[in-house]
Sequence to fold (884 residues):
Amino acid sequence: MSTETRTTCPYCGVGCGVIATVTHDGDISVKGDPEHPANLGRLCSKGSALAETIDLDGRVLFPEIGGQRATWDTALDLVARKFSEAISEQGPDSVAFYVSGQLLTEDYYVANKLMKGFIGSGNIDTNSRLCMSSSVAGHRRAFGSDTVPGIYNDLELAELVILTGSNLAWCHPVIYQRLAAAKTARPGMKIVVIDPRRTMTCDIADLHLAIRPDGDVALFLGLLAHLAKGPAIDQTYIGAHTAGFAEAFAAASAVTFEDLLDRTGLPAMQIREFFRLFEMTEKTVTCYSQGINQSSSGTDKVNAIINCHLATGRIGRPGMGPFSLTGQPNAMGGREVGGLANMLAAHMAIESTEDRDRVQRFWSSPTIATRPGLKAVDMFKAVADGRIKALWIMATNPVVSMPDAHAVEAAIRDCPFVVVSDILHDTDTARHADVLLPSLGWGEKDGTVTNSERRISRQRRFLKSPGNARPDWWQLAGVAQRMGHSGFDYRSQAEIFAEHAALSSFENEGLRDFDIGAHAAISQDGYDRLAPFQWPQLAGKGNNETRFFANGGFYHADGKARFVAVNPSTTDRTSASYPLTLNTGRIRDHWHTMTRTGKSARLSGHIAEPFAEIHPRDAIDLGIRGAGLVELQSPRGTAIVRALVTERQARGNVFVPMHWNDQYASKARIDALIPPVVDPFSGQPASKNVAIAARPFPAALYGFAVSAEKPSVTGAEYWALAKAEGGWRTELGFIQAIEDWTDWCRATFGLSAGIEPLGYSDGQSGDLRLAFFRDGRLLAALFIARQPVAVARNWAIAQLSADHGDMRRRFSIVAGRPGMDQPDPGATVCSCFFVGTNQIIEAVRGGCHSVKAVGAHTNAGTNCGSCRAEIRGIIDGCLAAAAE
Ligand SMILES: Nc1nc2c(c(=O)[nH]1)N[C@H]1C(S)=C(S)[C@@H](COP(=O)(O)OP(=O)(O)OC[C@H]3O[C@@H](n4cnc5c(=O)[nH]c(N)nc54)[C@H](O)[C@@H]3O)O[C@H]1N2
Ligand SMILES: Nc1nc2c(c(=O)[nH]1)N[C@H]1C(S)=C(S)[C@@H](COP(=O)(O)OP(=O)(O)OC[C@H]3O[C@@H](n4cnc5c(=O)[nH]c(N)nc54)[C@H](O)[C@@H]3O)O[C@H]1N2
Ligand code: SF4
Ligand SMILES: [Mo]
Fold:
């Protein structure tokens, strides 16, 4: 007997449908929902590993005040009292909420309602500020509303898909797979990737433009000027549905071709080829994500792209349009409820007296925020300088993810009253909470999310609530009621959703794009059965047209779109002291600050430590060796990570993932290096273009360890740990040798004094190996060397689960060059079937020259498919090497 629950993946904005199966003895498995329109059964590596990330290890299960367990009543009373006191003493703007695109719509709705309608401040901002706010600002400038015109199917229908500032293969893997499948079916389809790095997404690209950081505005201005002179310009559309073309064209024409070459750093041939493709292909979709949004010119980049689509009338028709790929599972839902400091609710504007009046009447609220609140970066500045007295952080980890992370951490630490609602007990942010509230996580909570194509899907619970954890909306409503506010006596998520839907259609009359009035009277039963649907869905209208703007109908007062005359900005921030440009972003198998994906050995095996991608020639200039450690420095902070020397990287650029934090590494919180530079329109931080310096980290000794218990490392300047099958793996770097390695191991790996190690040490080479056993099991093994340790990692990890009753086996761990005589699978490529690089190379050498053949031989890439691009890369690499 088992039960199946249809729900939605809690990770990226693709919004895949998931079927979770719980057997009678509690085993949980997940698979893609074949009926969900976003994924039609597919899942990526992260989605496939969901069942491994929902254990209760590390969870916060009871409210805590000052680190001590408390009841909900005491905790919520205290929160309500502290917020009320601050408001009565210093006014409503002395409190703030910092929330998240990972909240469900119902949670988000209640948070926004409480802050804007009842506390009466605009001080609710969200990590979407760091994520989508430039797109929101760009949409509002162009369309008069925050509308994503297209749908996923447009990518499949298009003849040209441009991916700019998007690593689709790793960040929206299921859309990538849909696109790759469409291209296989219609090989004539062209794909252009615009990214300073050669990412895995380039695997399906016909053209990769390795653009100079922030060269995008110039490129799309150049494109507009080019289009205006050729056959693709659509004067009819421009005349009927837009305003401001002449000014935009003048701004675009001001960029000379020389200037364009200089600002983009691209060869003239490539630029011409790109312009020609765009000009000749009516069915063009331009997708963009953080390489566009996270920039000091992010909003201008968005408008430069939209300008080109408006000028050609290629918007809102099948296979055409600008397409903002949203990051978080509910980035869009947050925008719909107005969760950003400069929005109101249901896509209404905080600046509009009419809108404010309408929302206040709908809520019957005592007050309403009269002006936008503080945007994330300014909000934390206000926390730092004491203007904010009480702060509630919910479902986000700003000590890791905010720019100027050290300053943000200090601000949170020193703030008089901080509430953190999270699912985990130990995060870099939660450790500073005065009140820590246990939230329900994915699988335990109920609600809705909206994906990148405006599709609203249910997340459904299939697990019991652990400990005393409660939904985020329940926590907010409890505090609201204790503060004396009416209008928060919700009994269920369904009631909140119904209210949200009713507000969306309240006095709407087609004035606002976001309208889901069809669900305004939804019952509990209807909510339980709610199938994924796209908005708008008006009352009494059934399913509507799911694209916007093919025939105009924009949301500016005159119904016309606006061209925006943007200027190319100069964004080379490097200097003699900080000569390199730091770019940051994501890897395939980790999610943000790793609180969930870090729990999965499978996902952690893909890339197990923080790294910096550096071009080989820069590495030579800097004296940095591949696999050595590198220290990165900006005026704000430093980080130590592994050097990954690769030609995929452009010269002068360094890429570091955003994921690692103090729970998993000694010093890899990369946001500590990022200054709080923001886009002037959206307030979104420029996390991808930061001047830094790099130098080799002077490690005297390197180490690698596997252990059954989670290590607690001291004495190593560099450490990075990752979950591994049967325990943990740890990479180490020491400036000085440890005096007594046996004692160090005991303290680090929690070994009792009675356990004596098996050891080997070579004074001359500096190699040292220690292994500790109990009852035929390996408890911990440490490998130390003067060079980066050459132990086969997956072999060493496998020893944690192997039987070591036999002494000879035990000796094999410390003898010779461990693992070198055994086949080492190499770094994990396919995390579904645990297939490593070396196994794939072996298969290629054995004659498998296609991804399919490798899959048939090793299983790699045959489940979720997220690694297919990497497999192809390995095949190409092997074949190229063989041809040399
Ligand atoms: N595996 C995984 N997937 C995720 C997430 C995750 O944490 N892990 N997070 C989700 C979230 S919240 C988000 S917002 C999305 C983000 O998804 P993406 O935006 O696709 O991811 P990033 O890696 O942040 O950045 C994309 C690319 O922008 C490039 N870039 C940097 N500077 C420039 C520039 O000036 N111009 C151009 N054209 N490109 C540039 C970078 O080199 C990088 O390859 O991913 C979502 N999906
Ligand atoms: N340098 C650099 N910095 C970046 C970026 C970048 O590309 N470069 N990207 C930015 C972007 S686009 C984003 S979206 C942010 C993401 O950054 P964050 O939002 O800080 O990252 P997460 O790890 O997703 O944080 C989510 C937190 O919520 C907790 N959580 C999970 N489920 C629940 C729940 O149901 N309820 C509650 N209350 N808590 C829950 C998790 O344990 C975790 O602590 O980072 C931004 N920062
Ligand atoms: S693409 Fe992957 S992470 Fe994104 S929603 Fe689908 S399964 Fe989840
Ligand atoms: Mo994001």
